[in-house]
Amino acid sequence: MRLEKPLIDPPAISGGTVLFPKGLPLTRPVTPDLDETIEDFRKILGGSTLTNGPFVSRLEKEAAEYFGVRHCVAVSSCTSGLMLLLKAGGVLGDVIVPSFTFAATVHAIVWNGLRPVFADIDPETLTLSPEAVQRAAGLRTSAILATHIYGNPCDVSGLTAVAKKNGLRLFFDAAHAFGSKRAGVAVGAFGDAEVFSLSPTKLVVSGEGGIIATNDEDLARRLRMGRDYGNPGDYDCLFVGLNARMSEFHAALGLRSLEVLEEAVAQRNRLAGHYRTALEKVPGISFPKVRAIDRSTFKDFTILVDAEHFGGSADDLAEALKSEGVETRRYYSPAVHKMRAYRGFSTNGNLSVTDSVVPRVLTLPMFAEMTHEDVQGVAKAIRRIQRSFAGVQVWDPNPFVVPDVEEAAAER
Ligand SMILES: *Cc1c(COP(=O)(O)O)cnc(C)c1O
């Protein structure tokens, strides 16, 4: 058999067919059943408590059971939760934090008048490196705030050891990690406290919201006071708190979302597996490492694009995928220390891994309702974009085939 002529399968950006003409979004929140939600809202409106009432208490109780911790404090967002945690925790001085994270992690430090000390990440897992934390620790350092990036759990034991050795508090921004496990243990119980986000792109969704998990009874009490202005009940405020309460409506949504969490995490892990299988042989594409005994939520499915081997940068790939109707995001680019808001801050040392990772990251669509076929479509798009970038001529997978008469005769 001989192909009539080599045909190329060009990407949409070079005039090929658009693979997702209706568009494929980066994410889509899991939303609860409308009728059940209306029932919840009817109960709330029929009572007299619109905020911080029975639904909030139930959400805190169910979350605490899920994480296996003694206390959960629901708040209005992960950002307010982080701000409040540092305040209620009495943190002073410098806080070691990754620059490869979402801006809110670092904002919470600066809003408290504390100084962020940026430390580098591990090149494989992209989470805060305990060795880098050790190098960054100084006399003024009092705490570590680490992020379970994309839902991939941090090196918790390494960070705990460094924290202990240097007498530092250890906190986690667990915005991505509702449902993550480190060696079988649910994220939520690590360090002094962990803060989760319930905003629409996260795993458990309440519209807006956050949850602080801790085993520290005194800290939990101060957090409850702090989310209510720092008011112990007699309006003689004990410290400068916030209004960071969660409303009953948000808690009702969060409770419904918690019911389907395990299913959502399982589905995202299946999709991540399909992505890896479909993309692992593409030149220049690799993945952040998730240890086999850990569980990531894959809040984001992020790939690393090596421009030299791929034939184009992560930015180039993002643009080409946009032409295919595929929405992507460069999580987390720019790194926080490169943001305009942080230009005046010293980077406090070596961020070479962060600086080398940031130009390569690209987050692909991932949501619980996404199908295996969607993943195959994105992978097909990436493969043909790569071939086009690299100038590889490709045979059409379904070409017009002309029987080779001579060859056929020889076989006979
Ligand atoms: C989303 C996010 C936050 C902020 O969460 P909100 O609930 O929107 O305030 C904080 N940290 C990280 C890592 C996030 O991704």
Contiguous helical run count: 14
- How much is the average pLDDT? 93
Strand content: 5-15%
Structural class: alpha/beta
Global morphology: globular
- Numbering strands along the chain, what is their spatial order in the largest sheet? 2-10-9-6-5-3-4
pLDDT below 50 for ≥5 consecutive residues: which ranges?
1-7, 399-403
Small-molecule binders: pyridoxal-5'-phosphate
Cα-based radius of gyration, to the nearest Å: 24 Å
Q: Main β-sheet, in a few words?
A: 7 strands, mixed
Order of helices and strands: EHHEHEHEHEHEEEEEHHHEEHHHEHEH
What is the tally of beta strands?
14
Work out the helicity level: 25-40%
Terminal Cα separation, in Å? Answer: 14 Å
Using brief descriptors, characterize the structure shown:
alpha/beta, 14 strands, 14 helices, globular, 412 residues, disordered N terminus, seven-stranded mixed β-sheet, three-stranded antiparallel β-sheet, binds pyridoxal-5'-phosphate
Protein model, in words:
The radius of gyration is 24 Å and the shape is globular. A seven-stranded mixed sheet has the order 2-10-9-6-5-3-4, sandwiched between helices. Strands 11-12-13 form a three-stranded antiparallel sheet. Strand 5, helix 6 (156-166) and strand 6 form a beta-alpha-beta unit. Helix 1 runs antiparallel to helix 8 (248-259), helix 3 packs across helix 7 and helix 9 (261-279) packs parallel to helix 13 (372-389). It has helices at 34-46, 54-67, 78-88, 103-111, 130-136, 156-166, 217-226, 248-259, 261-279, 307-310, 314-323, 352-357, 372-389, 405-411, and strands spanning 2-3, 71-75, 94-98, 115-119, 141-147, 169-173, 181-182, 185-186, 193-197, 210-214, 285-286, 301-305, 361-364, 401-402. The chain contains 14 helices and 14 strands. With 412 residues, it is α/β, with parallel strands linked by helices.
